[in-house]
Structure formats: C-alpha cells, structure tokens
Amino acid sequence: MLMYWFSNKLFNPILRTILHSPFRSLLPDNWVILTYTGRKTGKERSVVFHVTQYNDEFIVVPGCFGELPNWWRNFREESKVGLFYKGKTLECLARTIEHDETEAVPRLAAYVRHSHGDRLGISAETTEEKFNELVTAAATTYPIVTIKPHSRFNAS
Predict the structure, then answer these.
(1) Whole-angstrom distance, CA of residue 154 vs CA of residue 55
(2) Tally of domains within the chain
(3) Which of 32, 86, 152, 156 has the largest CB neighbor count within 10 A?
C-alpha cells in the first residue's frame, strides 16, 4: 500500500509535470505517460512508466517493481489510449497479453534485455539457455501490455 501511495500520489504527478515541461530531456526517452479510460469508472486515468520498443509497438510489464498494479486490466480487451512520448501524444491501441507464451516470450525477452532483467534473476553472467528459461517462466507470471501507435512513429 505504501508503494502505491508513493507511485500514484508522489512520483507520477512529479514525473508527469517533468515530461510535459522543457525539462523532459532530463529523463530517458523511454519514459511515457499512458492515458486511458478506466473500465469500471469511465474516468480518464494516466500512469507514468518506461517502455521498451518491440518492432512497431511499445511494451511495458506491470509488476516488474514488485506489487502488481491494477491498471493493466483495462487492456484485457484492446482499447484506445493516448501515449505521451518524446513530447507528443500518439493515438494508440493497448492490449494485455496473458497466458500466451508464444506472444509473450519474445516481447518479455526484449523488455528484460533493456531493463529489469535483475528482477528475473538475469545478470551479465547468465547464459543464453538460462536467460530463455527465466524469460519463459516469467512470461506465465507477468502480464505484458503492448501499446501500438495507429501510425508509424519515429523511435530515434
């Protein structure tokens, strides 16, 4: 509960303010703001996190910091969202991948190669075989949210 408070009441508002300001260059380019409509409340919500690019979509793995948040459940059915990325809002479609190893494993592999590999027990010394084993096991544990822009975007 304490982590929820820090994340939603302290960090997210501060990061949102920075990302919408000229100081956004202080943060890495992969920090984004996802804006969506809550499935139960119908209210507009926003959450800040970092993403990894996988082909023509962005990937985020909720719960990689420990406690699994609830926001990802809004995308069990594909939904329209706004993604504030590099100072621009992109119209996107978001969906959650759950219990689908074929879709999840390559996306999760790209995500952990970029960040949070340590959460899965992956280190610089991890062999490729062990890496694949850990990613496959995690793909059945964590939901993966894919965010796909309607049109091409410039990721550089």
Answers:
(1) 12
(2) 1
(3) 32
In the chain, what percentage of residues exceed pLDDT 70? Answer: 87
CA distances from 90 to 13, 57, 83, 152 (A): 20, 12, 5, 10
Per the CB < 8 A criterion, the answer to whether 2 and 10 are in contact is no
Is pLDDT above 90 for 139? no
Q: What is the pLDDT of residue 155?
A: 52
Range of the domain at 120: 2-149
Integer Cα distance of 51 and 40 in angstroms: 25
Residue 109 is assigned to a structural domain of this protein: yes
CATH of the domain at 91: 2.30.110.10
119-140 burial string, b = 16+ CB within 10 Å, else e? bbebeeeeeeeebeebbeebbe
